[in-house]
Write a structure and sequence with these properties.
mainly alpha; single chain; 5 helices; elongated; Single alpha-helices involved in coiled-coils or other helix-helix interfaces
Length: 96
Amino acid sequence: MISTNKKTERITARISADTREKLIEAAAFSGSTLNQFLVQAAVEKAQEVLEKERVIHLSYKDAEIFFNALENPPKPNKKLTEAVKRYKNSEFYEQL
């Protein structure tokens, strides 16, 4: 028996017979096994979801506004200044 360092995990799902047949047909059209088809489809969807959650897409105008705010932040107002003072006097600040 040949041993490899690759660890694999099994994922199971209960599906209807109609869904299974549809997936088998789609896998055949794509030239892959059902397992390969399912894994590839799941990975593609996972990448799409992760990119959507990790990447912020801004219009040119929104990007300009954002970077302008970073480069030229407004002066803190009275409420923010008071909040900072309260925080610095709190036990949370002292734990740092």
